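PROTEIN ENTRY
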Amino acid sequence: MNSAKKRFAAIAAGIVLCSGLFILEPVRAKAHDLLKMFRVQELTGISISQSDINEINRIFDKGNGVKEIENFGRIEVNSEGEIYSFKKLSGPEDIKAVMPDAKVIPQTTKYNYEYASIAPKADVILELDANKMNDFLEYIGEKNKLPMSIHQKTFTIHTKDVLNYSLVSSNNGEYKYAKHINITQMEAPTIEIPNDVDERELLSALFSMSFLPDNLKRQLMSISDLTSTLLIPYSEEHQVKRDIVVRGEKAILIEPKEGEYKSLHIFFKEGKKLYSIDANNCTADEVLSLIESME
């Protein structure tokens, strides 16, 4: 990766990490008076066009000379153990034996369980250097700055065990291509931020940034409660987004506009659990039928 791409990736990562503060709804903190806690509650699709990407690239290409800014911050990941992969997986009962509260697709004659793993709960610790991030914003011609309230403050994202498993069609001879379905299930993550960090001030700062395309600004500002919404991006040139209902809950279905290799993505939240489903060479109806059968 060249230096320009490194700089772009670094600042983009920092801003995404900051924006994560706004997609999590506050929940009551029981023990830490100096911390605020947030949790994902809703999901919504947000379209990103190629022109949006080009506009961002043009902004970042305006910087004059060379300005290498290292150490935008610190990221530390602490997990409890290693990823557990099922060596012998005959069906959903094997997953239930290890994770009893998992919602899994029952055994079916049309699909075989192919793979399953459980990633242990982990804490992701973030510490951002606002001075260096703002130096880079100034370098690319951005007049607005990130608030100094985030400078060298510790943000912690807590995740619980993450289940991932996949199914493959049992009789590929019936189809031109094998059918694959991948399901990821996790409890909605929480984030802790220092009590003196104003997430609304951060949101206002991000909305004022000139490198954020107007198309994205309009979509973000049209969302009634960004503090409780997890954004699901999709390409408006190549994909179609539909709002549907899955297991009685609001869900998002994203499908390609065209193409022989059909793939689709479904996202929904049920109780405290978030679900992400990716399927290849399947129809939406057959995938939704399997999701409805989860138990």
User: Anything to note?
Assistant: The mean pLDDT is 76. The longest helix spans residues 3-19. The radius of gyration is 21 Å. Residues 3-292 form one domain.
